[in-house]
Amino acid sequence: MPWPSRKRDKGAVADKKEPDAKIAKTEEETPDKEEEEKTKPPAGSSKSGWKNWKKTKESDSGGEESKITYCHWLLKSEPESRLEKGVDVKFSIDDLKAQPNQTTFWDGVRNYQARNFLRAMKLGQQAFFYHSNCKEPGIVAIVKIVKEAYPDHTQFDQKDPHYDSSSRKENPKWSMVDVQFVRMTKRFIPLSEIKAHHLAHKADGGPLKNMMLFTRQRLSIQPLTQEEFDFVLSLEEEKPH
User: Fold this and answer.
1) May I ask the CATH class of domain 70-187+219-226?
2) pLDDT digits over 37-95, tens only?
3) Phi, psi for residue 53 in degrees, rounded to 5
4) What are the domain boundaries of the chain?
5) Which H or E element spans position 215?
6) 180, 171, 196: which is closest to 42 by C-alpha?
7) Who contacts 231 (Cβ-Cβ below 8 Å, separation ≥6)?
8) DSSP letters of 85-145?
């Protein structure tokens, strides 16, 4: 493949302005600046936006609240070139679209919690494709899971930057899934905008109040509830603030 180990748990390596982590093995130890950024929601806009979204959802569902289960995902990948052990780990949404059948494996994850999320993914589930570690991080597209978890071959490749000498073929430590491009979001949804809603929802109980993008920032594989996914997706219909 032309982009070996381009998706790893440095989603980890994350955004230049808001780094998630430097390398997967130190992901939990690297200070995160995402929460330190003082992004404030526009006055009244996020709260009213949530109320309008909630009113629409209640109308559609008869007022029933969604069950709190993880059924969607957010996958971070770096759209700009960065060498890791001599290998360029860049992989943008355009790179995915250029793959045969617009499908590829999501390899290089080296964090146990992120790996467990990979193993929990089900065929057909959708995920946001998130550009990370770049000038303006955010959501650019939707992809879907087309093959459930299986052993990540890069853990056995000594030339790969994510080679793991402690992993054994008879009992592999690391897994990957296959994903396929579904569509671009109608507009780029920046991290700053999502965070503005998150901060407002922490105060008023909106659907993004516990979004893992802000509670476990360094993970490159993150689960989303139905409410979180639906609300973020609804933002593509709004004009950016």
Assistant:
1) alpha beta
2) 334 444 344 444 555 555 555 545 444 444 457 999 999 999 999 999 899 999 999 99
3) -65, -45
4) 70-187+219-226
5) helix 212-215
6) 196
7) 50, 53, 197, 206, 207, 208
8) TTEE----HHHHHTSGGGEEEE-----HHHHHHHHH--TT-EEEEEE-SSSS-EEEEEEEE
